[in-house]
Amino acid sequence: MRTLRLNTLQLTNKTLWLIAFLLVSAVTSAQEKISLEKAIELAKSNNIDLKIADKEIEKQTVLKKTAFQPEPLEVQYQGGQFNSADYDHNVSIQQYFPMGNITKANRQLQEELAKLAEKQKALSSYDIEKAVTLAYYQYLYGISIQKLNAELNEIYTKFLKNAELRFQTGESGNIEVISAKAKVKEIETQKAQLEYDLAIYQKQLQFFIQTDENVVPDDKTVLQYSMVKEVGNSKIEGLMTDYYEQQISVYQKEANTHKAMRTPKLGVGYFAQTIDTKGLYQGFTAGLQIPLFGGVNTAKAQASAISISQSQLALDKNKLRLNLQKQELQNNFAKQQKSLDYYQTEGLQYANQIINTAQKSYANGDMSYWSYISFLNQAIDIKKQYAEATHNFNQSAIELQFPTIKNN
Known about the structure:
CATH topology: Outer membrane efflux proteins (OEP)
Mean pLDDT: 85
Coiled coil: 99-126, 177-204, 317-346
Oligomer: single chain
Organism: Flavobacterium hibernum
Order of helices and strands: HEHHEEHHEHEEHH
Largest sheet: 4 strands, antiparallel
Protein name: Multidrug resistance protein
InterPro entries: TolC-like
Keywords: Cell outer membrane, Coiled coil, Membrane, Transmembrane, Transmembrane beta strand
């Protein structure tokens, strides 16, 4: 019974590993390698939020046709003894039309609303570009860690061979072989974990691109992000300023519309009736609808003026926030740049020199096992720190290129 349980457990573990392998294989199969520019292009063409923004622009454009807003046609019938004892008939039609600048004001308001929808779409497009860029370089970071893992596997595999050879010749104890085997198994386990991480990073990128294809970054892309100097901050500042200034323009036109609604409306009409059931008498009418109680529209116009002030204050606040954020991001970028420069100019060279020297010394018997392990761990740690420094640099550079904004 115990043997049966053990076999069942082993079979279950093998099944779980098989399922995990198939899940990772499903992600890594039939992958399409694309550049960052292509990824951003696909995201902007596929993104549902941008498609919704296009529909909002289309809707506001269609609503321009509602600028001319006449009153509903009024048709009235009257029958009875309103002239004499005879039963007469009266039919009248009345139509009121807006006067003054109300039609012009409505049209201008809709035009500004359509422009505001375009400004909002530009901000959404900016956010998508930032998200795709972050996800793209997150995947490249995963690839760099995977390459480092492969390099470590090669190093420790050689170490294992040397340890086995030294053990066979009696130059060292079995502890070296056991330690090397344990390290190789550890690296192999990390390799499986890294494959899961890459699958997650790939799905994150795929989510922002919003495609069914298993797209991945082009492995020929340089790991270090190349920032466009002085473009990002001026771009977002322009987008933000355009949005709030357009919002102000909408409120201005909204105030004009409320003011124009205080203008009287002109009405014209036609009637036809019988008198003593004899003959058909016709005529025309004309009239005015005068808004004697215009306090409602006046208050709405005042509210729009307050909204103008609110948008201006929001713009000033976000400009200040963006300026402070820019200084903070520049300081962090400079810090990450300095760290990366060290590893590129010195640190990485030291790591390679330590590994090469330690391997030769250990193979020649000039270095003890414990010294070799100590130097090897030091070099590996430097390489890991270099990969992390590159990742931190990329994150800071992208954040500096695409500062976070709020449009509310």
